[in-house]
Amino acid sequence: MPKPILLLNCGSSSIKYQMIDADTEGVMAVGLVQKVGDPTPGTIDHEVDGEEFHDSTYFPSHTEAIAAVVKMFNTHGPDITEAVAVGHRTVHGGTEFNSTTIIDRAVINKLVELSGLAPLHNPPGIAGIRAAREILPHVPHVAVFDTAFFAELPAAAYTYAIDTELAKKYQIRRYGFHGTSHQYVSGQAAQFLGKDISELKQIVCHLGNGASLSAIDGGHPIETTMGLTPLQGLVMGTRCGDVDPGLHAYLGREMGLDVAEVDTILNKRSGMLGLCGKTDMRDVEAQMLAGDEATQLAAEVYIHRLVGYIGNYIAHLGGIDCITFTAGIGENAAWVRKMVVEKLGYFGAVLDEEVNATRSKQPRRISTPDSQVEVLVIPTNEELAMVRETIRTIGA
Ligand code: ADP
């Protein structure tokens, strides 16, 4: 008997979903709803056993979008009512939620209270939870938090140097995000190396559209680049990452903008997009090869920030055994990995250029046998990590 788990990842305008059999860990269905909350018709793509099904209609809110997901399951299978649990990707758990949590009314109320910390991410997640609970009321729903893995960061790492009372009142601290991925990939890296995770000093580079690094000592996170929000840290597709905090006030004053407008500039119009007009690293590479100077500089800024954090983390870890690249850019952009690892020669990292340049979907070592640091590429699988978390939490 399969043990299907439905996974929902509700963004502001999209819903990604999967049904995974927790026993075999095989994907039973995968789909995507786009243009939720849009005045124009949206699309839904549903895939079962390699066969794709598409539909298009209006999705005024997440409720209609989830209803469309259920219709897809009802029409094309598998049977959604066989789901034994639903796992909801939930971006911000604040200080309240340190681990995966079974959702009840009180949890939903707490999530609503936390929305101020993640105004772009938590409200669509809550809408998805409400809609899914109405449709599947008899199975446990669990919230898997992006922040949970980093709940045990040391206080020196998570504390901002601001007024303590303010920090307490408004729950201001470093939270870190992509925790599910950092936890999963660091576990996979240890397994790949045939080592116990407790023996390893690791850095995980999760480089996707959003990007973050973590320093993990013996399986425990001791540093990460994202902060109160996912804006801090690395240069990202459209997010600036670290800037002088005075920039907000300066831009507001000079441009006559309110805080929301400045926030939009830094979140949506910055990063690689702001520097060279492209967010996708494939386009960035093409423009770079065509000799575009702004793109060359953008790539250098991207690498500079990344290498700076790696050096910082090696100091905090007091050494380094393993650096792992993951997510869309980390898994696919060989030139990014090459530019980074070439800067780490002082620490004894040596890249095997041939293996690095070879495309593969498998976990692999891209350092040479005599490299003093293991450099790996491990595909992340946040869905599988969510399934395992969901099963562990409901005790099935
Ligand atoms: P997210 O989940 O944050 O949206 P992903 O981890 O899926 O992001 O990564 C998406 C990014 O990965 C794309 O924007 C692109 O920059 C990068 N990417 C995907 N495929 C390739 C590739 N073949 N070469 C270089 N970069 C790639």
Which fold does the CATH topology of the largest domain refer to?
A: Nucleotidyltransferase, domain 5
Uncertain ranges: none
Total number of helical segments?
A: 15
* Chain-averaged pLDDT: 95
Give the helix level as a range of percent.
25-40%
Distance between the termini: 13 Å
**In the CATH classification, which architecture of the largest domain applies?**
2-Layer Sandwich
What's the number of structural domains?
2
CATH homology superfamily name of the largest domain: ATPase, nucleotide binding domain
Tell me how many strands there are: 14
Task: Give me the secondary-structure category.
Answer: alpha/beta
> Which CATH class of the largest domain is shown?
Alpha Beta
Strand residues, percent? 15-25%
What is the radius of gyration computed over CA atoms, rounded to a whole number of angstroms? Answer: 21 Å
Q: Give the strand order of the largest sheet, numbering strands 1, 2, ... along the chain.
A: 5-4-3-2-1-6-8-7
Give every kind of bound small molecule, once each.
Answer: adenosine-5'-diphosphate
Largest sheet, if any?
8 strands, mixed
